[in-house]
Amino acid sequence: MNRTSARARLTFKSLRTLITAILFAASLTSPLPAHPQGCTQCQDNTAATPPKTQAAYRHAIILLTATASSVFLGALVLLKRQR
Known about the structure:
Blueprint: H1 2-29, H2 38-47, H3 51-82
């Protein structure tokens, strides 16, 4: 019983070290914050369009989000089945 607990402590300690290393590497490789200009340009261009066009843009954004989400979830399902 004493061996098992020592082995479990070693595993937990190595797992904690691995997670710390991954978080540290992710913080070093993460991009710097950007100040996008495109968002304000799109907002100005969209505000200058008629309300019907603005509604079409909102509808298109929802459709694009749903499409991207379904492709992502489909890929996850396929990858899960291969294991």
